[in-house]
Amino acid sequence: MEKFETKIAVLLRDDLAVWQRLNVTAFLVSGIGTAHPEVIGEPYEDAEGTTYLREFRQPVMVFEGGKEILAEARAKALARGLDVAVFTSDMFATGNDTDNRAAVKAVPGADLDLVGIAVYGARNAVDKALKGATKHP
């Protein structure tokens, strides 16, 4: 198995419903793929020649933790210069990207009610930023 120098990690709040965990994860990782096209592999193709969309070329690690762990991880990740995507509880009540961005912009970073973050960068730095979180079961 290839060992990557970078890491894609998602940290979810541990009190989310299953549908929320899946929804938040999908939203968060889309930010990494658009900001870092190098993490996207080549298109897939089956034996019949049908082609499929390109996907991440490396695993996405999913973790969970309490509200405090998310706030600490966000702060550590930003302090280490890592790229961070956020999803706040307010975003569950919106229905579009414009309202999502407005919900985040209305709150100072340290006060965001985070339900999930995605972090991308050097593997060691991501591990240090997520210290205290546990792997999602």
Automatic annotation (TrEMBL):
The domain of life for this entry's organism is: Bacteria
Q: Which InterPro entries match?
A: DUF2000, Pep_tRNA_hydro_II_dom_sf
Please name the SUPFAM superfamilies in this protein's record. Answer: Peptidyl-tRNA hydrolase II
Q: What is this protein called?
A: DUF2000 domain-containing protein
Q: Which organism was this protein described from? A: Catenulispora yoronensis
